[in-house]
Design a protein that fits this description.
By secondary structure, the chain is of the alpha/beta class. Helices cover 50% and strands 12% of the residues. The protein has twelve helices and eight strands. A hairpin with a 7-residue loop joins strand 7 and strand 8. The longest helix has 17 residues, at 59-75. The two termini are 42 Å apart.
């Protein structure tokens, strides 16, 4: 079973390993707050709130989770503190299900024989280029014909890095000189991809946030020129966020959702941080499905986000006892 197939044992093990720092941080703290407690009381809930906020779940999402737990405790006056993990797990699962209603398998669908166009957005440094390279690798491994468009023309390094990934993966890349019109690169990419019966097109874009108006105008222009070739393009606008930045990721999501219609999220670098709670908070606050998570440097360490497996991994081996 390939990239878009069922979760393999290896993927589960990689996910467990990738979330280890987050698991250790959250559950060690939870264990401390319930030591000696016979029930979930106000003090326990206050301390749990602090733990979730510190894990970058976000204040609003944390308050929502705490309120739901309070309601459950009110219904069951004898809820034992040792059950807190189970209750927390169920509430997080419910939140993720609300914002990621379907487990994602192979979402690539062509229309009228046209390739599926993914426009990738995000600030510099979040792992956008690496994500594009890994996606290209995974799609190609599935037997798909993939094209990359280097439409971040404001940095020579961005073009060069993407070209290295294209060579490494063995897929065509359409590029122009630094300073060229990004929309022109996008147009050329979808034209070439369409002519060569491509299945997937990955369009890189500039990661600038210093002027939101310019960003909005640039992304809108890229969309419009691609729609001259493929009216439905882009089929997906994928925002890449660095999970290790915690609250900064929330701010980036806010800015990009104001600048363009973001339809999916990729949250990277979760393996190097204890801030994995950001996945829960961003999914809840922005109501945008998390499509991918990055849990390592290997090509296969960009995984389709499976909320069931994510929650299972997050809570695995962390049964709290008094």
């Amino acid at each position: 079973m390939g990239f878009f197939g069922l979760f393999s044992k290896e993927k589960k093990e990689n996910l467990d390993k990738g979330l280890e720092k987050t698991k250790e941080s959250i559950f060690k703290k939870i264990a401390k707050i319930i030591v000696g407690k016979s029930k979930v009381d106000d003090e326990v809930l206050d301390n749990l709130e602090d733990v979730l906020v510190a894990s970058d779940v976000g204040v609003e999402t944390t308050l929502k989770i705490i309120k739901r737990i309070e309601e459950r405790v009110a219904r069951d006056k004898y809820t034992n503190a040792t059950e807190l993990n189970r209750i927390l797990r169920e509430e997080i699962s419910t939140l993720l299900a609300e914002n990621n209603p379907k487990e994602i398998d192979n979402f690539i669908k062509t229309t009228n024989g046209n390739p599926y166009v993914i426009m990738v957005v995000g600030v510099n440094g979040v792992g956008k280029t690496t994500t594009i390279g890994k996606l290209a690798y995974q799609f190609k491994k599935e037997g798909k014909n993939v094209y990359i468009g280097a439409a971040d023309t404001f940095r020579a390094a961005a073009i060069d890095q993407l070209a290295i990934w294209a060579t490494r993966v063995g897929v065509p890349i359409i590029k122009q000189k630094m300073g060229s019109d990004p929309a022109s690169v996008a147009f050329d990419t979808v034209v070439s991809a369409q002519k060569n019966n491509a299945d997937v097109v990955l369009i890189d874009t500039a990661g600038r946030l210093h002027n939101k108006v310019n960003l909005m105008n640039e992304l809108s222009k890229i969309k419009k020129v691609m729609q001259k070739v493929i009216p439905e393009a882009p089929h997906e606008v994928l925002l890449v966020l660095d999970g290790s930045t915690g609250q900064n990721a929330f701010e980036q999501a806010k800015q990009f959702t104001l600048a363009t219609e973001v339809t999916a999220l990729a949250i990277t670098k979760l393996d190097g941080t204890a801030k994995g709670g950001v996945v829960i908070g961003i999914s809840d606050q922005f109501k945008i499905p998390v499509r991918y998570i990055g849990i390592g440097e290997k090509l296969d360490d960009l995984q389709i986000f499976n909320r069931t497996e994510f929650v299972d991994s997050l809570f695995k081996g962390n049964e709290v006892t008094t």
